[in-house]
Amino acid sequence: MSTDMIPYGKQDINQDDIAAVLDVLNSDFLTQGPQVPLFEKTVADYCDAQFGVAVNSATSALHIACLALDLGEDDIIWTSPNTFVASANCGLYCGAKVDFVDIDPQTYNLCADKLEQKLIKAKSQNKLPKIVIPVHFAGQSCDMKRIHQLSQEYGFSIIEDASHAIGGKYLDKPIGDCQYSDITVFSFHPVKIITTAEGGLVTTNQPGLAEKMQLLRSHGVTRDPKLMTKESEGGWYYQQVDLGFNYRMTEMQAALGVSQMQRLDEFVAKRHQLQQRYDELLQDFPVITPYQSLDAYSALHLYPIQIELDKVNKSHKQIFKDLRQNGIGVNLHYIPVHTQPYYQNMGFKLGDFPNAENYYSRAISIPMFQGLTFDMQDQVVDTLKKVLA
Ligand SMILES: *Cc1c(COP(=O)(O)O)cnc(C)c1O
């Protein structure tokens, strides 16, 4: 990649962010200090959720969320094939089976109709999922009301993979309030809406789940007498009551997160400006721009377009290559998870989830991030015009 390539996503770090991290470096705690609880409270309050538990990645968050919901070897999780592999791998970490529900061709999110059809069939075969993980693709909420209704009817838990969606809303309520789910997971990787370098966080309104995830992120070890099986043996005493991990977030990361949260609404508002400009500028292009549902205020992590390949004289692959060669750092979200070799070895085949595969065959994510200037955006549009001509 050339250095003046416009990336598809990029973090936005200002002087306040840098000062916040430096303050921590000069303080007594680099880990397990006051910044992590402050970040947890900041995010939980923003989301109108009761509890926040910060960890070192969304991948870790998905893992402990599944464990907290007692996912084990005889269980099944379902998620969207149009996602990053982590949304599915968390099930495999727990020894469970993974299956997918195809996407809605308009929203690119897990399709609630397809979910219902699959549940009816699974019930008759006694193979119902224990957990369904809807992914708010590109920052736009799934049809959570419907998915929640189905969870009541068929008895599964819900983890929202909102890695793309902090700062977004569903039915005018913040994503992460867990009104229609048990747990919501966020990612703070630098390409996402706000960043802690690496990092993730779960929100929940269920005290038992919050407690369990707090244990699991730190070795299953507690210093809380209420959680111990017998009396403390002294001031040094701790107990391991579960098998946990070291999934802790550092104080530097949490301080960066607290600082980034101050600008979250501004970041998402800028993304909306960019989205509206793209929608207008691309009107006469042979592309399908991303549909915005009336139920959702998307966090707009991505701006994925579909190329109308019957209207252009180039292949998808060639268009992608030409854009990269002309300085536009496009990407593709996502290679359907079930087509990955690891999943093909488990028996999934090309053709299993045709909507996700069809979308993949035409999709390109063009640059979308808060630091994208209108001039840079015009350059993206001009280049796309040239490449598609
Ligand atoms: C980025 C992402 C993840 C993983 O996030 P990390 O913080 O990098 O572990 C999981 N799911 C989705 C949908 C993502 O986009």
Automatic annotation (TrEMBL):
Pfam families documented for this protein: DegT_DnrJ_EryC1
Residues making up the signal peptide according to the UniProt record: none
Protein name as catalogued: UDP-4-amino-4,6-dideoxy-N-acetyl-beta-L-altrosami ne transaminase
Gene3D superfamilies given in the database record: Aspartate Aminotransferase, domain 1, Type I PLP-dependent aspartate aminotransferase-like (Major domain)
Keywords in alphabetical order: Pyridoxal phosphate
Matches recorded under InterPro entries: DegT/StrS_aminotransferase, PseC, PyrdxlP-dep_Trfase, PyrdxlP-dep_Trfase_major, PyrdxlP-dep_Trfase_small
Record keyword Electron transport present: no
UniProt family annotation: Belongs to the DegT/DnrJ/EryC1 family.
Domain of life: Bacteria
Stored NCBIfam families: PseC
